[in-house]
Amino acid sequence: MDTRCHGLQSWIERLNEAELPALAAVVQDLHRLAQEETSSVKQLADVLLRDASLTSKVLRVGNSAYYNPSQESIRTISRAIVLIGFDNVRLIGMAVSLIDGLLTRAPREQLQALLARSFHAAVQARNIAGYVLSRHQEEVFIAALLFHLGELAFWGCGGEQADELARALDQAGVDEEAAVRAVLGTSFRQLTLGLVKAWNLGEIASLAHGASSRSDPAVYAVNLGTRISEAALEGWDSPAMEQLVRELAGFVGVSPEEAMQQVLDSADEAVRVASTFGAGKLCSLIPNTDPEQIRLQQEQRRARLLQPDLQVLQSALQALGQMAVRRGEVGAILDTLLEGLHRGVGLERVMLAVLADGQSCFRAKRVAGEGTAGWLSDFELPFEPSSQSHIFGYVLRDKEAVWMGVPASYGLNELVTQAIREKLGQGMFFIAPLLAGKREIGVLYADSRVSGRALSHEQFVAFQRFAQLAGRCLEALTRRD
């Protein structure tokens, strides 16, 4: 059973005494060597040689193509210091210690995501510092790597309280800062500053949490690298990234185009660095700079920003109204239906699943939205008219639209089977029968899971209206045939 901690001092004592003493000792000793003008090769080697596992990992990293492109064999710490430099070996020792101290436990996804962001920030910051500083670049790397030290330590060692915070942060509309304070009794920023002070990690790491003024170029490089690593998660062409690229261009004296290329090159380098340090599982969490991946990110952001378009909605309803009176093509009816729901109502993913194979199964017939193309070949659910074993069959038999994920529908949760969750994911969705008079055509499904936004009452009303109108259009066709 975890001993519950509350408040800054309580957490610092726990992390120092119970959870991270070995990591703290190595990090402190390596940092101390940077402060001493007369630090010797032997002193650095002695710190690393205390731990055989750490020694072997430092040598493995030192022999990597990233640090040792000449591939001259390095078998001892002292040889590594001669070949790749005192500062580089110290940096490798600190980074390897951090990874080992945190990732050797059962790593949470929050920890892995944050550590990936920290590596990305460290490489961005060091390369920015390279433009404006003749030395201290390695200290900038460490300061950026440890910028979220408190949060990293908490997700690595927080035990049951980390589980508690993870659950709290999963709630829609949660105030993250308030949730952190409620569980920890302090903020992540205060915890980081407390650990930086307790571990004596130096001025740059401490000052980086202050104002992002340009008065200290090293501190500013840490701050800018950290903000770039965060903005990259929104997409390389996001407004936040565009602003930071302009800032970087002004700071280092290059064009915005050159600054953007520098940022992308640093992101690629961060992937190589994470891999070099034996943290390959983090590589996929650093935003990809491949043009195809960037295009996919742009699509995701467009989907996240998808808003109801009243003009498209009204136009689609009007077109369906006319097709209910005058004969319309089936294809035109279905295209108008999905266009109205996706772009008009602002539903990110929409599917019409029709009864197929002699009404023995539901199969995707029409889809709209990002990531839905695969449904056309993959989505199939068995259907037995005599039973209501899942929500698709239930809705078709009950002949009523349902908004899943709100209290009124909780009693139907067991009808959202594992097979449905595997195919469509989890969360809120709308589902309604599509009926041509009394004839059962299939089921309409819609959600907004690309962005994770909650669905609204107005969207549900419009969704029901579209389902009813499309049914009238199809009924008019059957009457005339």
Task: Describe the secondary-structure layout.
Layout: H1 8-19, H2 21-35, H3 41-49, H4 52-62, H5 77-84, H6 86-103, H7 109-132, H8 137-145, H9 149-157, H10 159-169, H11 176-184, H12 188-198, H13 203-207, H14 217-231, H15 239-252, H16 256-276, H17 291-304, H18 310-325, H19 330-344, E1 349-356, E2 361-368, H20 375-378, E3 380-382, H21 391-398, E4 402-404, H22 418-424, E5 429-436, E6 439-447, H23 457-480
Antiparallel strand pairs: 1-2, 1-6, 2-3, 4-5, 5-6
Helix pairs in contact: 1-12, 2-3, 2-6, 4-6, 5-6, 6-8, 7-8, 7-9, 7-14, 7-16, 8-14, 9-12, 10-11, 14-15, 15-16, 18-19, 18-23, 19-23
Question: Which keywords apply here?
Answer:
Beta-Lactamase, Hypothetical protein af1432, 2 domains, 60% helix, 481 residues
Question: How would you describe the overall organization of this protein?
Answer:
The protein has 481 residues and is of the alpha+beta class. It has two domains: 8-301, Hypothetical protein af1432, CATH 1.10.3210.10; 310-480, Beta-Lactamase (2-Layer Sandwich), CATH 3.30.450.40. The protein is 60% helix and 8% strand. It has helices at residues 8-19, 21-35, 41-49, 52-62, 77-84, 86-103, 109-132, 137-145, 149-157, 159-169, 176-184, 188-198, 203-207, 217-231, 239-252, 256-276, 291-304, 310-325, 330-344, 375-378, 391-398, 418-424, 457-480; strands at 349-356, 361-368, 380-382, 402-404, 429-436, 439-447. It has a six-stranded antiparallel beta sheet, with helices on both faces. A hairpin with a 4-residue loop joins strand 1 (349-356) and strand 2. The chain is elongated. 40% of the residues are buried.
